[in-house]
Amino acid sequence: MQADPSRKIRKVCIVGGGTAGWMAAALLSEHLKGALGQIELVESDDIGTIGVGESTVPPFLQLLAKLGVDEQVFVREVQASFKLGIEFRDWKAKGQSYFHPFGTIGAPVDLADFYQVWLKAALQGYPGGLQDFAPAAVMAREGRFTLPFKAARTPVGGASYALHVDAKRVARFLRTFAEARGVSRVEGIVEDVRVRDDGFVDHLVLKDGRTVEADFFIDCSGFRSLLIGKALKVGYHDWSHWLLCDRAIAVQTENVGPPAPYTLAQAQDYGWRWRIPLQHRTGNGYVFCSQYLSDDEATASMMAQVEGAPVVKPMVVPFKTGVRERLWDKNVLALGLAGGFIEPLESTAIHLIYRGLDFFFRFLPDRDCDPVLADEYNRRMIADYEEIRDFIVLHYCLTERDDTPFWRACRRMELPPELKRKIALFRSGGRLAEGLDELFRAVSWQSVMEGMGVRPHTFHPLTNRIPFDDVPGQLDHAAELLRRVVADLPTHQQFIDRHCAAPSPQVSA
Q1: Matching Pfam families, A to Z (predicted)?
Q2: How far apart are CA 430 and CA 120, in angstroms?
Q3: 430, 116 in Cβ contact below 8 A?
């Protein structure tokens, strides 16, 4: 049975701008190329955006590719720097650190995953660390960078990377992109959302009395969640019993020295702080649990640790970790903070916006919004949120720290059942329970587990197929070759200066 062309969506209204709203506008305008009719975005300059999410994960580069955006131009325009992974300091114990790299670690040997080969060697006394074989980790350690695909036949070819970005500049870039492709912007504050008898949103009422009608609405109104939460009254899965932090203090500072090609996540007494270096400034923040620390105390602690003079006043961002029971309900799709929030430890906020749009295109409805499509969309997206939630909880629950009530609470929390199962499986020979199309794959789990002190007591039996007498020497050779190749690469700053330096040193607030 063919779709009824008279029921196609004629107009989409996006409520709210910022990164979520303009990303939706850009992707809709590029992917649908007028086939969906009109795309309109309602926002107000009087309502500020959060704009502190400044770190991404590698799939963000897929977004640029799908938009047909030149990555080099984008990096210059948003004053971005490159990100090879995250350094975690003081998480397992004070004074200890580990690295979560993007890309590969080593290469498979015979039928065995590299991790299993390294694990067997380590259990037999081999001293080399797992990250000595991760090209992204070695580049980050040495402050060097190149595009991995430009060195595909070398030991650094298995690395991957993401970007550190200025979130407000990203929103402006995407706005320019979207408006050039026909998206119209309406300046106004949404005062009311009118709902039809069948539960669908009919139209918006703006503060000045104007109305905005559409067939489908995308809620990018942030924590206010004007449509999915307030109008449609979709409930919220509260995950604060697993992720105890509920507030963040954010501030931007002048750069001190060249930007590092990685994010720093340093554990604190009652949470953790981030450092995200861009080309012309650095983003800083303290994510903390308000049960143990006040805003003033968190601000003072963070400001005592930042490097460089602040260029804006610190901003307080309260949040509740969790996700809506449904991210698509009737003719409303929620993106970004309107749909849910998982604290920024692994830089997944922008990824979830892109992911939400990617799945929406797969299940694109007509005006009737078949609930079968929405049900499958919600199943897949909420599974993504839960996967990311469990991976972030992993960083907390494995800590050996007991120096504050916060860390003691993290150690004794009852874990999500799926995470509990994954940890038990990994302890049993380093095995992993990976699903389809997950964001965090084997390298991520192996890196965090090893970094937090979870090393299996045995290895996979297939590793015994490999003659092992020469393996330690082969590992040493591979690590040394990687170090030599990395040593010949440009520094991160040199790479930026040669290829994608921002045109001016002006700092955005």
Answers
A1: Trp_halogenase
A2: 10
A3: yes
210/328 same-domain check: yes
For 171-281, list the strands marked E by DSSP. 184-187, 190-195, 201-206, 211-213, 216-219, 236-238, 247-253, 263-268, 271-277
Tell me 192's DSSP state: E
* Cα gap 220→232, rounded to integer Å: 14
Q: Is pLDDT at 141 greater than 50 in this prediction?
A: yes
Average pLDDT over residues 399-422: 97
Q: Which residue has the tokens 């979130």?
A: 167
Cα 45 from Cα 42, distance rounded (Å): 10
The residue range of the domain holding 445 is 81-165+416-493
- For residue 251, the cross-strand partners are 284
Chain segment 273-284, per-residue pLDDT in tens: 999 999 999 999
Tell me, yes or no, whether 251 lies in a domain: yes
Q: Is 8 a catalytic residue?
A: no
What is the pLDDT confidence band of residue 111, given thresholds at 50, 70 and 90?
A: confident
Q: Is residue 75 part of a domain?
A: no
The whole-number pLDDT of residue 52 equals 55
Residue listed under structure tokens 């060697």: 121
Q: Cβ distance 54 to 230 under 8 Å?
A: no
Percent of the chain scoring above 70 in pLDDT: 97
- What pLDDT, on a 0 to 100 scale, did the predictor assign at position 508? 45
Say whether both 150 and 176 belong to one domain.
no
> Per-residue pLDDT for 507 more than 60?
no
Q: Is the pLDDT of residue 53 over 70?
A: no
- Domain shared by 85 and 153, yes or no: yes
Q: For residue 435, what pLDDT is reported?
A: 76
| Start-to-end Cα distance in the chain | 53
pLDDT in tens, 253-303: 999 999 999 999 999 999 999 999 999 999 999 999 999 999 999 999 999
Q: What pLDDT shows up at residue 48?
A: 61
Number of domains in the chain: 3
331: left (phi over 0), alpha (psi -120 to 50) or beta: alpha
Among 33, 83, 230, 320, the one annotated catalytic: 83
Instruction: Report the alpha-carbon distance of residue 214 to residue 186 in Å, rounded.
Output: 13
What type of residue sits at position 184? S
Mean pLDDT of 83-107: 97
- What region does 114 belong to: left with phi over 0, alpha with psi -120 to 50, or beta? alpha
Is 175 part of a structural domain of the chain?
A: yes
100 and 28 inside one domain: no
Q: For position 262, which CATH number holds?
A: 3.30.9.100
**Do 210 and 334 reside in the same domain of the chain?**
yes
User: Beta 190-195 vs 97-101: how paired, if at all?
Assistant: unpaired
Nearest to 213 by CA among 224, 221, 205, 225: 205
Q: Are residues 192 and 294 in the same domain?
A: no
* Domain-ending residue, one of 318, 350, 367: 318
